[in-house]
Structure formats: structure tokens, C-alpha cells
Amino acid sequence: MRVWVLVKLSLDTSQLRFSGDRILIEETPLRINDIDRNAVEEAVRLKERGIAKQVSILTVLKYPPLKDRVKEADGLIRQLLAMGADEAYVVADDALILTDPMVTSIVASEVLKANGYDIIITGEASIDGYSGQVPAMIAARLGIPVVTYVKELKVDNGIVTVRRDLDNETQVVDSRAPLVVSVTREINMPRIPTVIQIRLAIKKPIKLLTLNDINVRINKVINVKGIKAIQVSRRGIIIDSGSVEEKAEKLIEYLTKDNVLR
Amino acid sequence: MRLMILVILDKGNLGIIGVAQEVMEATGLTINALLLGNHEGINLGDYGVSKVYAINGSGLIDPAPLARFITNNFNDAKYIIMPDNKVYRTLSGYLSGLMNIPVIINPTDFKPPSFKVNAVGNRAIMELEVQRPVIIVAQAARFKPKQYSQGNKAMVTNVSVEPGSLKLINVEGKSISNVRIEEADIIVAVGRGFKSKDDLKLAIDLAEALGAQLGCSRPLAADLKWLSEEHWVGLSGHRVKPRLYIAVGISGQPQHLAGMMESGVVVVINIDKNAPFFKYCDYGVVEDLYRLLPALTRKIKERRR
Questions:
Q1: Are both B85 and B204 inside the same structural domain?
Q2: How far is B30 from B45, CA to CA, in rounded Å?
Q3: Domain stops at, among B103, B126, B159
Q4: What is the mean pLDDT of residues B73-82?
Q5: A100, A171, A175: residue with CB nearest B171
Q6: B111 - beta bridge partners?
Q7: Residue A46 contacts by C-beta under 8 Å, 6 or more apart in sequence?
Q8: Chain A residue with minimal CA distance to B173?
């Protein structure tokens, strides 16, 4: 089987840079969307079990400045190749900067159609956008089924059995490839590659694609008129001296003054 | 082409009609509803819905057949509105793919065609404009639908949808308690700083003394399962906005912070003075929770006497 993992290189929300109410997107580092590491791990395990013949990574870059991000992406994607993926495709084009999930799904579907696929795995959502829309969007565009929020995956005799973690229940569902699977963080513990694996990953291919290469033209349907930081100013008063009793006393004093204790 | 609003819902999240009403008032379009599952005793006519299409049975295991049904029959919907949960979020994505229209998740403000949504891990507000038809996913519990008039009967048509290609093998229920952490006034939230499940007693005692609900970070609900998911605060758990949020033994991962950003006063208790959470607090106490919590609980009880 040919297995794909869709990975988002998110903005690292723990390292956001601000200037007043502006988020300095261009200066904020990227980070592999945490849950997509679980997706890569699951794909690599399929390969180790002899189910997947080839594991390919696909990412669509969303953040400026494009030239620097391509370099940054290379370093990040190498980590995933070191985990055991075989190759990667990075789609980078100015027309994709700050576009919405629908655009991601259009681009990803075209790359998948051009290359062939059996199982497409991705994280349930990204840490920055958190819409969780891309897996089902791609499934619809490819005309194949989708199972979302999967915390257990088995492939046996061509039957894909998953355990889906929904709000009020857990479903066990059978399906057949080709299909799209979105996974939760509980599905596995992503491996940390060894030094040798990291070194070997340098030789694995990363293919850089533009929209021209995949014959896609984007009409922006969502017009982003502005992005403003949510400014929460916290007082940041740290109580770190005195005995335990004194610290507790001090805290209660502050909270009483703020009128938040009943 | 006649345009309209299509709201998709089931008995458990009627609040979503409130969103459809706001869009109706802003645009003058009529509301049609697609009602999933049992619909006995629900008259959506009272809420300004003109036509109801009832789909009985079939849980939404495979979103594909329903998405195809909507695509074939509601091509004239300008706004497709549905509640926010994992099942509907799968449907919204599939529908977007079939209809080639975008999805807006949890708008905080909507004056079509303008919308505001939280973005960048809940750290920013993004203002959007969408001219095309759009799918809106919103939290039903945040809206209260208006009853326009009594006894206004909506026309109900029963429809059926073909089964999908996914096969449901088994369903396991989750234990659902009455915790509604989204509505809590005070929250005491616990994290990996607690060494065992039994030790949570220290936080439970504090919560009781404060009249607070118990919250937790991801590992406690998802990995260790010391608490049920109703307690889970975070991007993939619940988003909360209490008057007072006390985080005990939580380091402050961005995904957790995203779930409690809207809290009033934030207190952080952690033994590690370098815990990232200290950067986002009003009051931070650097102390061993095993020593601080008993003292705090005792003093709060004394104070109330």
C-alpha cells in the first residue's frame, strides 16, 4: 500500500512574536504540528508491519516569508524522514500564503491524485488553525471515505478497522482502502529518531512543488481583512518568598482584593 | 436562484437555531432545517423555520451519503449552519469538499458577509469576508433561539439517506457526568504535578472550599484517565471562561492555554519557577502543591466562617 501523511507546519504558538496588537507572523518560528507526528508514527508502523510499501509526507506551506520558510521546512521535514518516512513533497507558492483549509485540501488532493494513494493519515487538527476540516475535505474531493478522531488503527486483509473517539461515544468502524484517517494524540507515542537515522534522512528526497507544477489555480474565496492579537494583560505577580503559610495568606489577600472569592 | 439558510441539527443541540436566526435577521433569507434522528415533540416553526426535512435513524457514521444528499437537494443554500462537535465537524469538511465552499468554525461575531474567528491557537482574532455560500460551524450552547410565535407549524417532510460505505462494528458509551465546565464560575485545574490519582483529593478539597469545578490538562483526561473528558480544558478539550482559574501543577502548554485564555483572574501554582504558565498569570505561587494546597484550603474555609 502507498501511505501518505499530511503534515502541517504550524506557527509555533508557544513562541509567537508580537508588536502591539500585531502578530509578527514572519518572525514566529514554524513547528511540526504535534498530532501530525503521531500520524507519521502510525504510517511508519504500517511500513514496519509490511502493510505499507512506501510512506510519503505531504505539506503545504501557509506562512510568509516563503523563501525562508522553504528552508525552515526542509529542516523540520527531515525529522519526519528520520522517523522512517521515505520521501516528502513540499508545496510552496506565494498564492498559498495565509489561505484557508479549503485551499490546502484542493492542493493536497491534486498531489495525491497525481501520485496515487491507498491510506492517507493526518492529525485530527492543527495547533494553530484547529479546524480539523482538511481530512474530510480531501476525502470528499477524492471521493473516498473518511474516518476521523481515530485512536486505534488496524489493517488486516485489506480491511481497515479503527476505533473513533467521539464526544459521547467510541465507535469501532470497518472500512476499506483507499480512505482518509485522522488520528488523535492517544493513538501512539511518536518515536525519537536516532543519530544514525537523522544522518540517513539527509539522503531521502524532498520534492519542492509550485502550483504550476501541479496545475492548480487558486481563487481565494475567503478574504482575510485583518489578524489582531488577542491582548490579555495579566498582572504577573509572583509570590515566591516566605513560608507556605505566608504564601497562601498573600494569595488570598490578593484574591479578596480582586473580589473573586465568594 | 432562491437562496436560503439551511440549519442541520438534532434534538441535542437546538441552540444552533439561534445562529440561523441571527443570519436570517441580517439577510432576510428563510430558514430550512435538516433534523437528524428522533424529532418527536419538536416544532421548529416556533423558531422561524419554514421547512423541516426529517431524517430518521442513521447515526452519522459516514458523512458522505448525507453530504451528497445535501449537495443534491440544497444547492440553493447560501448559509449552511451546524453545531460544533466531532461528528458535525467531519460532516462540514466533507460537505465543503463536495460543494466547493469554505467552512467557518466558531465565529465570534458575524455580520454576513463579514465574520470574526479566533485563530493562531486562539491567540488572535481574524476578520474574514466571504462572498460565496459558506458553511458555519458554531457551539450550539452559546446561543438561545428566540420563539417568534406560538403554534406556527413548519412543514415537515420525511426523507431518507442511503447508507454509507463504512461499517459500524461496535459502539461504546462514555461515562457522562453532569460536569459543565464551560459554565463554571471558578475552576481549579490540575495537571501532571500530581503524582497519583489519589493525590487529586488535595485539589478536590480546595475546589469544594471555593465552590469550584475541577478542570484538568490533557494528560490527566486523555492519557492517564484520572478524570473524565468533561474536565479537560484546552484546545481539544473544553474552552472555559470562569471568573477565577486556578491552575495547579500545570506547566502551561499552548494547547492548554488556548482553552482558558478568556478566564478572569488566573492563578498558577507550580513548584517549578520556570513553568511557562507563570508568564500568563495574574498571581503565581512558586511552591510545592502538596504543601500549599492544604494550607490554602484551610485558610479559605477559615475565612468563610
A1: no
A2: 12
A3: B159
A4: 96
A5: A171
A6: B114
A7: A1, A3, A52, A55, A119, A155
A8: A169
Q: Which residues of A touch B243 (CB under 8 A)?
A: 260
Helix (H, G, I), strand (E, B) or coil at A136: helix
CATH code at position B42? 3.40.50.620
pLDDT of residue B41: 81
Total count of domains within chain B? 2
**Which pLDDT score, from 0 to 100, does residue B150 have?**
73
Do B154 and B45 form a contact (C-beta atoms < 8 A)?
yes
CB within 8 Å: B123 and A145: no
Name residues of chain A where pLDDT drops below 50.
none
Q: How confident is the model at residue B151 (pLDDT cuts 50, 70, 90)?
A: confident
pLDDT range class, residue B284, cuts 50, 70, 90: very high
Could you tell me if B27 and B87 lie in one domain? yes
Instruction: Decide if A260 and B186 are in contact by the 8 Å CB cutoff.
Output: yes
Query: Which CATH number do you get for residue A14?
Result: 3.40.50.620
What CATH number corresponds to the domain at position B216? 3.40.50.1220
ipTM beyond 0.90? yes
B186 to chain A, any CB pair closer than 8 A? The answer is: yes
Q: In chain B, what residues touch A251 (CB-CB under 8 Å)? A: 267, 283, 285, 296
Q: Do B124 and A227 touch (CB under 8 A)?
A: yes
Instruction: Point out which residues pair with B215 in neighbouring strands.
Output: B189
A214 touches chain B (CB under 8 A): no
**Cα A123 → chain centroid:** 6
Say if CB A120 and CB A112 are below 8 A apart: yes
Residue A125: closest C-alpha in chain B: B236
Contact A145, B166 (CB under 8 A): yes
Task: Give residue B45's domain range.
Answer: 4-159
Q: What is the pLDDT of residues A87-139, one digit of tens each?
A: 999 999 999 999 999 999 999 999 999 999 999 999 999 989 899 999 999 99
CB A69 within 8 A of CB A38: no
* Helix, strand or coil, per DSSP, at residue A191: coil
Residues of B in contact with A102 (CB under 8 A): 96, 100-103
Q: What pLDDT, on a 0 to 100 scale, did the predictor assign at position B305?
A: 66
**Interface with chain A: mutation pick from B120, B248, B286, B303, highest number of A CBs within 10 Å:** B120
